Amino acid sequence: MSELFGSVWWLVVTMGLLVTFHEYGHYVIARRFGVKVLRFSVGFGRPLWMCRGRDGTEYAIAAIPLGGYVRMLDEREGDVPAADVDAAFNRKPPLQRMAIAAAGPAFNLVFALAAFWLMFVVGRPDYLPVVAAPTGVAAEAGMLAGDRIVTVNGDPIDSWSKALQKLGESAVGRRDTVVEVVTATGAETRRTLAFSSLGPDVGERQLFDRIGLSLAPRELAPVVGKAERGKPAAAAGLAAGDRILDINGRAVAGFGDIGTLIAEESSKTPQLAIRAQRGAETLSFEVAPTRVTEADGRSRLIIGIAPPDAHDATLRYGPLAAVPRAFAETWDVTASSLNMLKMIVFGQASLENLSGPITIARFANGSAQLGLAWFLQFLAIISLALAIMNLLPIPVLDGGHLLYYLIELIKGSPVSERVQIAGQYVGLMMLAALMGLAFYNDILRLSF
After folding, report:
1. Which of these is catalytic: 3, 23, 188, 408?
2. Residue 23 bears catalytic tag
3. What pLDDT is attached to residue 106?
C-alpha cells in the first residue's frame, strides 16, 4: 500500500507544481494586459479551499488535481458591468489574447529549464553506458560485453539513461541505428542495430527485451553503504563505511558475496560472527539475520545493509556551466517528444506509448525514491509534455485558442460563435478519446 499512497502523493505534488506554474503564466500576462481575473483554480471540480484576494480574484484549490484554469471576465460568458468592459478578455486585441493563451505553455518551458538547471547543479547519479553480454538485435549487430556506447546516430552519450532514451526512440520508430562504441580492449568501432527487423507484433512492453542491451554489473567492494535502522546489522553496531572482512571466518571478496554467505552460514548457526574494518580498527560483531518475504512470495535472510553507491557517471556542473546544459537538455527532450508525437500521428509508433495519470503517478513515485535530481528531471519532462500537449491545435486547449486568434488576426474578424461551439464539442470528444486511450494503456501496464 505504501507504493500506492506514494504514487498518489507524488502525483498530487507533480500536478500541483506544474499546473500552478502553467496557470500562473496565463494569470500574470492577463493581469499585465489589464484583464480582470475572476478565479485562479488549481484542480477541477468542487473547491476544497478558496479565498478572495484584494484584487477581487478568487484563489481556489479544487478536488481533482489533474488540471486547472484561470477564468477571466468575458462578455461571451455573461453580463459585464459598463465600468469593467475595458477589462474583459474578449475586448483585448488578438495579439494580446494570443500572448495570454501562449503564456501557460511558455511558463511550463521556463519551469523545465529551471528544473534541468537545478538537476545539473544538484548532480544526477547515473551509470557509464557499458553493456553486459548482449542478446537480440544488439547481439546480431555484433555488440560485445564491455562495449561502452559513445554515440547513438551521432548524438553524444554520457550516461546509461541517455543511451536508453536514444535507443528506445529509434527502436519505437523501427529505424536502423548506428552506435559508436569503445570495446573492452580500447578499440573504437561502429555497430548498426537493425531495428527495422522488429515486426509490428513487438509491443512497448517487449521492446527493450528485443533490443537486448543491459547494464554491465559493477564490482562493488564489501563496504556497508547504509545500515538500516531497526535491522540486525545496525542493532549489532555495524555502520555505513564499515568494510566487511569475513563472515564466520569465510573471507568476503565483494558485496555480492555477503548475501550468499549469510544464507549458507545461517543454516549452520543462527548467530553470525562478522569481522569488519572501521578506519584503522578491526571490529567483531554478532549478528542474527532475519527472514523477509519478497513481493514475489520468496523469502530470504538479511541483516539489513545496503551496498555502497555504484554510480560512476554523476552529471554535475557548477551554476554557470549548468545553464547551457539545461538549454541543451530541454532542446533534446523537446525534440524527442515531438518526434515521438509525429511517429504516433503517422502510425510509425504504437498508441501504446500514450500514458495517463496512473503511469505518471508511478513514475513520479519511482523518480522521487531515486532522489531529488531524478525527480527534478521527471518534473522537467512532464512540464515539457504539458507545454507540447497544450499547444496542439485542439479546441479547448491553448493551441486551439491560438488557432482561433490567428484566424481572427488574418481575416480581421473573430471566428463565428457557431464555429467556436462546434469546435468545443469536437475538442472535448478528442480529449475524451485520448484520455480514455491513455487510461486503457495505464490499466494494461498494471497487469504486467
Report:
1. 23
2. yes
3. 96
